Records
---
Amino acid sequence: MFPKARNIERSFQYIRFFTLFIILVCFLICTYCLYQSFVLASSVQDRIYVLSGGKVMEAVASGKQDNIPVEARDHIRMFHTYFFSLDPDEKVILSNITKALYLADGSAKQEYTNLKEKGYYNSVIAGNISQSIEIDSVSLDVQQYPYYFKCFATQLITRSTSVVTRSLVTDGYFRNTSRSDNNPHGFLIERWTILENRDVNISNR
């Protein structure tokens, strides 16, 4: 009688152990499946399919950190282009300066105020002067935050009788900020300074 009872008890122990083992295996399988599903969902979210000319092409999304040098250079080019592109029209000047000031902090606003107080923009309008800029190069240091930049550019100032070519060198820092219609790259230029702005050539028209 007692040996049978012991056998039954041992059988129950085996069944309980086997049941616990099955539950553990099922739990591990479910956990693995959930993890793989999460990995798959994340990889799918990083892919965009574009239909062009009847063909489906895959575009892979990347984080902002991966594109900092490319986006920063374009941001700096945009700022300098808006700030230094002038025509003898008050509305054009104000429009360009407004766009530029969305991309930088108070250091750019201070430079604009200084030029305005000196009558620079009034002389542009009165003298029918057009000013354009070509960005030669932008050097970046993205190893430390906020990031440092140095911009080398050439200004062309077209007057009624001459064209003045000027060398322009500026530097400053830039930090991350929110993207918007006015600031599509999501950077803000800080502590912007003009290091050099000198004539290199004057040609008669």
Note: The CA atoms of residues 29 and 189 lie 51 Å apart.
---
Amino acid sequence: MSPDHLYDDADRERIVPEPPKRVDAPVRTAFERDRARVVHAAASRRLAAKTQVVGPQTDDFVRNRLTHSLEVAQVARDLARALGCHPDLAETAALAHDLGHPPFGHNGERILAELSHDAGGFEGNAQTLRLLARLEAKTFDGRDRSVGLNLTRATLDACTKYPWSRSEAPEPGGVHADGTPRFVVKFGVYDDDREVFDWLRAPAPGRGKCIEAQVMDLADDVAYSVHDVEDGIVAGRFQLTALDTDALWHTVRSWYLPDAADAELDAALAGMRAIGSWATAPYEGTRRGLAALKNLTSDLIGRFCGSVQEATFAQGDGPWVRHGGDLVVPRQTEVEISVLKGIAAHYVMQADDRVALMARQRELVADLFTTMLERGPDALDRPFVDDWEAAGDDAARVRVVVDQIASLTDASAESRHRALTTS
């Protein structure tokens, strides 16, 4: 049975009211229309050329931000259906969750946050809201302002992973891939996007995430924990049959679970090793090896989602829609996911060659930022030229430059850098 009846008119409301489509057009629900708008957005296409863990130009097999988002969407849709919330809402949020990421992934996010610190900062999730509600233009309001894709309130809320501003954000923790402390705070809205944020959050209780956003968030964790390990194995970075747990547990604690004891981490790894599809021989790149690896990823995703579904249903009867409840992630599942993320972090993200590449990428983004800020409209695409001319102060101009850089892919950032620094 469709969960449509569990969502009301306020959930389907848009900032700019839209008349029904012509009678000969396919009949779609409001949430189906939202999904289609995200799929067709230019920002979605650009994800194909943005780094996930390993750069998209390095190998035909590894994930990029687009393939990762498609996999997150599949996990989110299945989990939402099992829980009884709207699959279209969870899937759209998953498809949109990385739209705001700049070139070079979290590495690009880090340097943009540093460069724009005094002008409101940068955060990929806040940039996603900015894209959906402003930059990815489809609809304009009565004051001739872009309202982005004009998505429904429920969809925008489902896309809000961190429903608070920078000033309200908790202190960051953990380390970056080069071992330096994290200082980028996680938040979901810039100060000058507060109007749309307050509108989409109007019926929401405090800082709580809606259940559809929680599904998206968990699906993201599940997908990248499993798939980053798969990519690392295929890339020859490590073998599941030869893990150095002493060093690995240090990474897991530094990055994800500072309170996890060796015994708890050992038990989590032992539990996953007991899965029938866990590797018992080194991966050698054969078709049989690829099939075994794919079976393991499927089993791990099913294990994690199944445990969350069971624990969530155990807390009550629901319905699990909007702000009517919370996902329950068992501690064992949290630790197992963290162990997998730690494997990828230790063997891939902290590898010497990648750390050196990341330093060069940060230099490139910093050069772009400085050059664009100095040259202004001459260095910007036309939509951002208009934003620059409308900017009222230096902070607003910094935001325009950040919006421009964040819109670039890895390859276009490099080509734009060459063009601006050699002209």
Note: The CA atoms of residues 24 and 66 lie 32 Å apart.
---
Amino acid sequence: MKTPDYTTVILVDQPPKQVFDAVNNVRGWWSEEIEGNTDKLNDVFKYHYEDVHRCQIKLIEVVPYEKVVWLVVDNYFKFTQDESEWTGTKVIFEISEKDGKTKLQMTHQGLVPQYECFEICKDAWTNYIQNSLRSLITNGKGMPNGKDKPQTENERKLAAEGK
């Protein structure tokens, strides 16, 4: 049964340990401006992109080389009516082997089409997982956002509009 939660999958030649390590290197693929630790159970980190998006995330499950689950403890979007849309949602990274490759499935449980941010968030997650995280895994270098360095077209538009 298909859920309405956002999900994306990548297949890579690298082993599960390398994929797991890359997922936990959040500064290497999502944002250079992450504050806090991002790799051990109960770690809490903060993400922000300008004044457009801020969130606080806690690692609530970490199974080496198999699974990482983030709980969004707090969230703020400047561009949605409900600024806290992600609060209480989970971002789940599942790692498995498939046909001699490593499969990474990322599901943002609770990010559903009814959310005002769904299209923007779907596009951003797709870019970060399919491009930046894949590049970090396969080439050792991701494409995270940084200060004044948006990665997606929507991030560029929101920054330009001052939203």
Note: The CA atoms of residues 8 and 132 lie 13 Å apart.
---
Amino acid sequence: MRIDVVTLFPEYFESPLRVSILKRAQESGRVQIVVHNLRAFGLGRHRVTDDAPYGGGGGMVMRPEPFFEAVEHILGELPEEERREIPIILLDPAGRPFTQAVAWALSRHPRLILLCGHYEGVDERVREHLATDEISIGDFVLTGGEPAALVVLDAVARLVPGVLGDPEAPRHDSFAEGLLEHPHYTRPAVYRGWEVPEILRSGHHQAIARWRRWQSLRRTWERRPDLLLAADLTAEERALIAQWEAERRALLAPLLEGGAADPGSSSS
């Protein structure tokens, strides 16, 4: 897989691309990451990439020409039918949410292009006529698209076949099956009086798998119940969730009943 990144700040990616899984993915040849300096496609001898917004207002807007020329340079002489198959992704707060499912889908493409905006934003014509997709990593605003591009890079690259040592590992990640991942433990078996659950030391693989699934389900119910709406659950698991809900309502009932009293009433 090849991923091209277009950015005003190529140095932002230098250290992250030289360590851990992203480094090994590149060294193995399974992933090629090429960072392009947008300034090289800027206008005039000063390589201008931004300008004041039409209509007034503060801040600067990134011009369209450098982005179009950068992408055309990256695609080079590729046939038109191949160009159409390459996602050109603008990292933008208004984009669709980045999820594990989106990462899986992107990892199936042989090539991606990531466009990093900056300042007040990018000229709308980049969004309308160049980018084929827009992605947001959350409901917040960053100083530029670089942190978001790095998140997408990392999440997608680790899903490319052969990048991770254990080919089954991505299947057990949080969100891979619609649930949060189960707890993990390693040596020592007892640390400061806290023990690793006995079942994990039992060697009973079927029981361990069942325990992990139960823990994953419980953790999702406690922390991200919204994920359960789309999760593929068995009838037994749905019954278990209903039982937890009933137990929680029973625990909260006395508090809710006490809170129902008139706060203005007094015995004095």
Note: The chain has two domains: 2-157, 194-259.
